[in-house]
Amino acid sequence: MFKRETKDFINIDPLQTGGKLTEEARQALLEWGDGYSICDFCTTGRLDEIKKPPIHDFIHKQLPEFLGCDVARVTNGAREAKFAVMHALAKKDAWVVLDGNCHYSSYVAAERAGLNIALVPKTDYPDYTITPENFARTIEETRRKGEVVLSLITYPDGNYGNLPDVKKIAIICSEYDVPLLVNGAYAVGRMPVSLKEIGADFIVGSGHKSMAASGPVGVLGMKEEWEDIVLRRSEKYKNKEVELLGCTARGATIITLMASFPHVKERVKRWEKEVEKARKFAAGMEELEIKQLGDKPHNHDLMFFHAEVLYEISKRAKGGRFFLYRELKSRKIHGIKPGLTRYFKLSTYGLSNSEIDYVLNAFREIVEKYS
Asked: Is 0.70 topped by the overall pTM?
């Protein structure tokens, strides 16, 4: 049996901090872990119409309320949700506008959908900001090349944890009559976010990144006006939604998503405390001359650091650039990729104040050890 060596470590990996299973989800995983376990209860051929377990209520009532949208679906991941929208809206020679901080899967999804891609430039070091002005300029320039069928903003981005002015960007897109997709893979399930309040057309979330679910699993929300386009039915198999390939999360993924959902709804109410902890951590790191890049003051638990002091240590330390990973591992801290010292990202989501103090003290000890 394969065992996860770092299971009981303090985890600061942004990919994992928001995806830790609740106890309810762990119990559900054991109960529903068999392959295709959900399909035993499907009588109509539609995942979202299963009444017991209560998937229908979750997808058609609870999830739209949580996302602040009209229509919602569960997908096999955030990238699958993005691709479904892009493929549904794609036209020959058409364009999609992506922010310059977008996740690689947004770019790949656009390529797979056959769309031309325009990137909104980000500002330079150390902020790496996506501004509404640059977004508007890019849409304007791209419209001269062809039809822009979709725009996408990453909120926050997965590198720096920046939260762009998404409401202003939504207004700009509306003025250009370009639908906006919000990639909220690091937002939905961690912080309050509502499609209607933003004013966008689509929103995507990640269950395994930010909704305490066993992945891969994602969520997709949209305005009602897009339902017939994105969720169009097969001509032959009338109950199957083409862009979702009929069915999506058919087992432990959706069950753990549902099992954790009551907890997730409550924890987003405590988002301000998560921001406070992140700012405390960033301030402590900067005392060690490890600079936090991106938005300041920071507004998300995902943070990116420039650590010239650690990079200099790596030049002379035993193990070279792997020294930091090994030093943290010896202190039962996991999450920074092996070999990274000069630039790295981490997350404080879900950590207690004592755990944050412990991680900060670990960095302090490491710097002092090699001084």
From this structure: yes
